[in-house]
UniProtKB/TrEMBL annotation:
It comes from the Bacteria. It comes from Ignatzschineria indica. The lineage of its organism: Bacteria, Pseudomonadati, Pseudomonadota, Gammaproteobacteria, Cardiobacteriales. This is HIRAN domain-containing protein.
Length: 323
């Protein structure tokens, strides 16, 4: 009996010592591993920090915020943290977004995740993501390059009737213009590149042409909208009645153009009764048709109130638009 007890005690002691040795060995290995990789880890973090400065690129456009982020519904909690509690009015919070390529995405190796304040809030649409990858490739920018863009968090209202989700829109240039405005320095530098390389758009040129105002060399795509706004104020406060009348006519004209183009873009509003008979015209065809009506001394108020007259003239001028 005594021998049995002694044997049991010895077995327990041996097991105890073996376990202690295993624990010590495990801790020793972990310490060695930690020491062995510790220097590399610090160096790696340092390298990543250094690279993050070098590998950031800035894109700035015209504050139109017409690039919509998708998939925000999965990141409402993150957006709530960033934007704050929902209120009766929709949010319009200006922020900076980072576009990060996610080549390991199992659904799409071209995926571009969108981050704000370190939190993912969505991603680019597949079409935009693929186009951005293509443009980055042309610029020899690898997948580690992070694109910074100005963004807005919108929506996120809550009242007694309903509640809205948060959304994100980006101030992105058209993909074809990225190479002209991308900067490794700052948003301001990107703005200056846009001012030098992007021409005025058709609407902006129309103001100068219609009003007979000569464009100064200092006017560029960066400051033209402010210039036009200031010029309109100047004309309204001037004593030149003819110039004031011309501005009023121009503004009526622009409203008609905008309304007609919006009618074509909004196929669900029921305003246009000839959709089944007319192919969609180009903006230039719309403008030329309106100019012809104007040359026939038809007022802009009459054009605006009589869509049928416009469409008849459009088909007369461009018969190939008839289906």
């Amino acid at each position: 009996m005594i021998k049995l007890i002694v044997a049991i005690v010895i077995v327990i002691f041996v097991v105890y010592m073996v376990n202690r040795w295993l624990d010590w060995s495990k801790k020793r290995l972990e310490e060695m591993s930690s020491r062995g990789s510790g220097g590399n880890s610090i160096e790696s973090q340092k390298t990543s920090a250094e690279l993050s400065v070098v590998q950031k690129r800035y894109l700035s456009w015209n504050s139109s915020y017409n690039c919509e982020v998708v998939g925000e519904s999965h990141y409402q909690r993150s957006l709530l943290t960033i934007a704050g509690a929902k209120e009766e009015e929709s949010k319009s919070l200006e922020v900076i977004a980072e576009l990060q390529h996610v080549p390991a995405n199992r659904y799409d190796p071209n995926a571009q995740a969108v981050y704000i304040e370190g939190k993912q809030v969505g991603h680019l649409s597949q079409r935009d993501a693929h186009a951005l990858i293509r443009e980055k490739g042309k610029l020899h920018l690898n997948s580690h390059v992070v694109i910074l863009v100005k963004a807005k968090i919108i929506g996120g209202w809550k009242n007694s009737r309903n509640e809205g989700s948060f959304g994100v829109v980006l101030d992105m240039p058209p993909m074809k213009d990225i190479a002209k405005v991308i900067s490794s320095v700052s948003f301001e530098d990107s703005d200056q590149k846009r001012a030098k390389s992007i021409p005025l758009n058709r609407d902006q040129k129309r103001f100068f042409d219609y009003m007979g105002i000569k464009r100064d060399e200092s006017i560029n795509s960066l400051n033209v909208d402010q210039y036009i706004a200031d010029k309109k104020i100047e004309i309204r406060s001037s004593e030149d009645r003819d110039l004031k009348e011309k501005l009023m006519t121009y503004q009526k004209r622009e409203r008609v153009i905008l309304d007609l183009l919006e009618d074509w873009r909004d196929r669900d509003n029921g305003v246009i009764f000839l959709y089944d008979e007319i192919k969609m015209p180009s903006e230039l065809q719309v403008l030329k048709t309106l100019e012809e009506l104007e040359s026939e001394a038809i007022s802009w108020d009459e054009i605006k109130s009589n869509n049928e007259m416009f469409y008849n003239k459009l088909l007369e001028k461009y018969p190939k638009l008839k289906k």
